[in-house]
């Protein structure tokens, strides 16, 4: 698979260099991908024909994020065989698997995380490496297939240069290091800094793919953190309209640019059973419930809301122990332009470019091949990655 990269600056002008951020995704052997390296800028667009692996690329990044947050392999990969490379042959012990990795930039410098997962005959980690320039912070390996652990070795640089201990074979070892490393020696403190950078860079990730059919019905007003499918759009509108007038006015402006007909406001109204529904105020009488909008209009509105909110509003798992100023929210959007007309695609990409340039979010989005969205992304300084079979 060939990757063509059209560059963007490695750091958005409004972003802090101290914020850990994922700058590269490695798909060594994952689904259709073999030996593929995907550069990730503040605003990254994946394009290519159907079947080129755009969705699986996003899936790999989401998987690393969830593992960084402490999820188990079984939770992250309920069907692990789906990610074993095509035509991969089992070894003498009937084992097959996949390998993914990433680079996280931050105060500790570039930190590289690489993970080897066995999918058959049973799901388990068989190897993990956390490295920096000239140093291996952590390395694990499956020594005894009969045991449910891996042998781990991490940098100590004290009286004992390396500490060895078993770690579970169904969790990311890097995410466990802050609980296992004392931090008494300079070497241990370097390991902790690298592990925490990798985990913080990965954890604040929001995978988003709005489902218009789920957004049409009223929802409980209490579900006010936006779900990945944007089902509870109305409840979140109720919250954001009250909390931040500036961002709400930007959402109204985006709706005005991308929805058919006049738009004076976008708000949530209560219905008889105590739930809320989203409404478009046309400025000339009763509003239009969003349930009457076309699927493309609903997706456009939901994605605009995602781009204009943040980790306190989106259903993400940020690192609570780290100040928000040192975290960088990454949004993963599969099919960013799905169902959108050319004008909506261009408007949404322009909004994404502005928000990413401010350092408000980082966005990795998949779009159709050589369509309005990919052309607009190039015009707005995105890192455009063309995935070619």
Q: What is the global morphology?
A: elongated
Uncertain segments are none
What is the SS-derived class? alpha+beta
Taking all Cα atoms into account, the compactness measure Rg is 22 Å
Q: Major sheet, described briefly?
A: 8 strands, antiparallel
Q: Please give the alpha-carbon distance between the first and last residues.
A: 5 Å
Helix content range: 25-40%
Number of DSSP helical runs: 10
Number of strands: 17
Strand content: 25-35%
- Biggest sheet strand line-up: 3-2-5-6-7-8-9-10
Can you give the mean pLDDT? 89
| Helix and strand pattern | EEEEHHEEEEEEHHEHHHEEEHEHEHE
Characteristic key phrases:
389 residues, 8-stranded antiparallel beta sheet, 6-stranded mixed beta sheet, alpha+beta
Describe the structure.
By secondary structure, this protein is an alpha+beta fold. Helices cover 29% and strands 28% of the residues. The chain contains ten helices and 17 strands. The strands form three sheets. An eight-stranded antiparallel β-sheet has the order 3-2-5-6-7-8-9-10, covered by helices on one side. Strands 1-17-4-16-15-11 form a six-stranded mixed β-sheet, with helices on both faces. The longest helix has 18 residues, at 186-203.
Question: How are the SSEs ordered, and which strands pair?
Answer:
Elements: E1 2-6, E2 21-30, E3 33-39, E4 43-47, H1 54-68, H2 73-76, E5 96-105, E6 111-120, E7 124-132, E8 135-141, E9 149-155, E10 162-168, H3 173-180, H4 186-203, E11 205-208, H5 212-215, H6 233-243, H7 245-258, E12 265-270, E13 276-281, E14 288-289, H8 295-308, E15 330-333, H9 342-357, E16 362-366, H10 372-379, E17 383-388
Parallel strand pairs: 4-16, 4-17, 11-15, 15-16
Antiparallel strand pairs: 1-17, 2-3, 2-5, 5-6, 6-7, 7-8, 8-9, 9-10, 12-13, 13-14
């Amino acid at each position: 698979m060939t990757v063509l990269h059209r560059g963007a600056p490695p750091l958005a002008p409004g972003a802090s260099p101290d914020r850990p951020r994922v700058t590269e995704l490695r798909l060594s052997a994952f689904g259709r991908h073999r030996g593929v390296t995907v550069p990730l800028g503040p605003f990254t667009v994946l394009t290519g024909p159907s079947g080129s692996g755009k969705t699986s690329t996003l899936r790999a990044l989401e998987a690393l994020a969830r593992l960084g947050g402490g999820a188990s392999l079984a939770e992250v990969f309920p069907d692990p065989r789906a990610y074993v490379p095509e035509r991969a042959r089992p070894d003498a012990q009937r084992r097959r698997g996949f390998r993914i990795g990433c680079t996280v930039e931050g105060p500790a410098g570039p930190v590289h995380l690489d993970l080897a997962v066995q999918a058959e005959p049973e799901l388990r980690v068989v190897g993990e490496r956390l490295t920096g320039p000239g140093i291996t912070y952590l390395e694990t390996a499956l020594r005894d297939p009969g045991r449910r652990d891996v042998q781990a070795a991490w940098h100590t640089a004290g009286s004992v240069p390396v500490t060895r201990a078993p770690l579970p074979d169904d969790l990311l070892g890097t995410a466990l290091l802050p609980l296992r490393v004392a931090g008494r020696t300079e070497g241990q403190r370097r390991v902790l800094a690298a592990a925490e950078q990798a985990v913080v860079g990965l954890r604040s990730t929001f995978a988003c793919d709005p489902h218009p059919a789920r957004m049409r019905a009223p929802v409980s007003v209490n579900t006010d953190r936006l779900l990945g499918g944007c089902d509870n759009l109305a409840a979140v509108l109720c919250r954001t309209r009250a909390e931040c007038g500036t961002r709400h006015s930007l959402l109204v402006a985006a709706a005005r640019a991308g929805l058919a007909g006049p738009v004076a406001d976008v708000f949530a109204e209560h219905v008889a059973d105590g739930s809320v529904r989203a409404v478009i105020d046309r400025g000339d009488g009763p509003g239009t419930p969003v349930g009457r909008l076309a699927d493309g209009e609903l997706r456009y509105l939901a994605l605009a809301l995602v781009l204009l909110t943040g980790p306190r509003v989106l259903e993400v798992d940020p690192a609570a122990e780290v100040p928000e100023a040192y975290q960088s929210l990454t949004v993963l959007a599969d099919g960013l332009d799905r169902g959108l007309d050319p004008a909506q695609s261009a408007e949404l990409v322009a909004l994404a470019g502005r928000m990413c340039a401010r350092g408000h979010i980082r966005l990795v989005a998949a779009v159709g091949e050589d369509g309005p969205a990919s052309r607009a992304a190039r015009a707005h300084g995105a890192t455009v990655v063309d995935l070619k079979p």
